[in-house]
């Protein structure tokens, strides 16, 4: 264990907290509110934001799509530059918050913002950013990551920078009331896989990280199991907080991390528009089976501590089955069949994307090369 850790995002958690943003938001800030396709206009969040910003000079940019594209976001970059915006308020799910991070960084750069994703430009400053979360899933509201798509080439890439970490995030569980069932399930699955990516690796003996990861997994499992009680304040609050804690940097500090499921899943989203969380449920069981020897000890630990299974020689296998059953219990598919080509072409398409994007050494031991990804995809694609 060797790490440096800070999470500088101030969290305002609870009902009615949107109005609290006037505390961290400087009085003289020139604000650009960025949001998505309009859900915030239908659930009262937009009205609350308008009321809260009454004494500020502010502008708005809407239309950030799920899996946000640089093509759309560059239009917001132009507004930031033209109006000399000095604070961005992202109001939405992971896509809006990620997109706002790109806008914040690209606005302080004269070249093509896509250079940030390819690594040609290293972010060294950004417009300040705050977030009002409307969909608990990604953890983007209090981390430094963002995933952006270039629609032109079907490329989905991520970048990390402390300069785009939100200064504050509002987590008001009431905003979840209008979320479609499908998005609530996506939230559970995405947060679940975030914990797995940082926990299901090799045994390292970091007891706090493992223990907290298991608490989060047990929480998410019980939220999935009690999905019929989702119209309940406590259920919503627990999902919102666990999804946040799953990817705010804490459980991943000083331990090996995997992220191969995410990298392969991103390619399926870029190719076929599969929802982010759905892509993870498709890849993960097959990836775990492929990597079972490297992950056996942690799978056994998860089987006992999360699923309450008994010791047995096939405990790791049973744990993967339990994960798969958990997805099935929520009607989340664990195989992909929604492609138009042959299966061989579908597998090839993903492998080609991985190769083009340099995803040739994935996993905590960098042992998932293109051939291994191909074998994983053979099982994940129906
Ligand atoms: O656009 P609007 O109209 O707001 O509708 C959205 C969108 O259609 C809707 N929605 C959001 N809040 C709502 C609501 N509908 C009703 N009521 C509400 N309160 O939900 C739809 C999906 O939203 P989106 O933001 O795309 O979902 P999510 O939060 O799952 O974000 C997914 C994106 O985040 C990236 C993914 O790759 C994907 O692009 N990720 C970001 C990460 C990060 N920054 O750390 C990590 C993740 O692993 C992930 O890769
Ligand atoms: Zn994710």
Protein model, in words:
This protein has 382 residues and is α/β, with parallel strands linked by helices. The chain is built from 14 helices and eight strands. The mean pLDDT is 98. Zinc ion binds next to α6. Residues 187-378 form the Fe-containing alcohol dehydrogenase-like C-terminal domain. Residues 8-173 form the Alcohol dehydrogenase iron-type/glycerol dehydrogenase GldA domain. InterPro entries: ADH_Fe/GldA, ADH_Fe_C, BDH-like.
Question: What does the secondary structure layout of this molecule look like, with pairings?
Answer:
Elements: E1 10-13, E2 30-35, H1 39-42, H2 45-52, E3 57-61, H3 70-83, E4 87-92, H4 94-106, H5 114-118, E5 128-133, E6 145-150, E7 155-160, E8 168-171, H6 181-199, H7 207-225, H8 233-246, H9 260-272, H10 276-290, H11 292-305, H12 315-329, H13 343-356, H14 370-380
Parallel strand pairs: 1-8, 2-3, 2-4, 4-5, 5-8
Antiparallel strand pairs: 6-7
Helix pairs in contact: 3-4, 6-7, 6-8, 6-10, 7-8, 9-10, 9-13, 10-12, 10-14, 11-12, 13-14
Residues 36-40, 43, 66-67, 92-96, 98, 134-135, 137-140, 143, 145-147, 175-176, 178-179, 183, 186, 190, 247, 262, 276 line the site of 5,6-dihydroxy-NADP.
Organism: Vibrio variabilis
Domain Fe-containing alcohol dehydrogenase-like C-terminal: 187-378
Pfam families: ADH_Fe_C (PF25137), Fe-ADH (PF00465)
């Amino acid at each position: 264990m060797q790490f440096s850790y800070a999470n500088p995002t101030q969290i305002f958690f609870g009902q009615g907290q949107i109005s609290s943003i006037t505390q961290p938001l400087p009085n003289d800030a020139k604000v650009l509110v960025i949001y998505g396709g309009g859900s915030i206009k239908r659930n009262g969040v937009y009205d609350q934001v308008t009321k809260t910003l009454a004494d500020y000079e502010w502008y708005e940019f809407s239309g950030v799509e799920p899996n946000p594209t640089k093509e759309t976001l560059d239009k917001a970059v132009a507004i930031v530059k033209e109006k000399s915006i000095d604070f961005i308020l992202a109001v939405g799910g992971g896509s809006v918050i990620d997109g706002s991070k790109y806008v914040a960084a690209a606005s302080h750069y004269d070249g093509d913002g896509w250079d940030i994703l390819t690594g040609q430009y290293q972010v060294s400053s950004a417009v300040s950013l705050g977030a009002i979360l409307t969909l608990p899933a990604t953890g983007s509201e209090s981390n430094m990551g963002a995933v952006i798509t270039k629609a032109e080439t079907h490329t989905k890439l991520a970048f990390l920078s402390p300069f785009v970490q939100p200064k504050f995030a509002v987590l008001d569980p009431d905003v979840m009331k209008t979320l479609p069932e499908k998005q609530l399930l996506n939230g559970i699955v995405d947060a679940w896989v975030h914990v797995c990516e940082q926990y299901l690796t090799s045994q390292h003996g970091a007891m706090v990280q493992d223990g907290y990861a298991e608490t989060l997994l047990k929480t998410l499992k019980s939220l999935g199991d009690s999905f019929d009680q989702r119209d309940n304040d406590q259920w919503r609050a627990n999902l919102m907080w666990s999804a946040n804690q799953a990817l705010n940097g804490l459980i991943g500090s000083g331990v090996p991390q995997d992220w191969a499921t995410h990298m392969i899943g991103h390619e399926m989203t870029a190719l076929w528009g599969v929802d982010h969380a759905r892509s993870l449920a498709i890849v993960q069981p097959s990836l775990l089976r492929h990597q079972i020897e490297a992950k056996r000890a942690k799978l056994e630990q998860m089987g006992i501590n999360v699923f309450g299974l008994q010791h047995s020689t096939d405990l790791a296998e049973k744990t993967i089955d339990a994960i798969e059953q958990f997805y099935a219990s929520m009607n989340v598919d664990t195989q992909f069949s929604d492609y138009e080509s042959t299966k061989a072409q579908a597998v090839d398409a993903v492998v080609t994307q991985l190769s083009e994007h340099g995803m040739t050494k994935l996993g905590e031991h960098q042992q998932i090369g293109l051939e291994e990804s191909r074998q994983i995809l053979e099982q994940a694609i129906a």
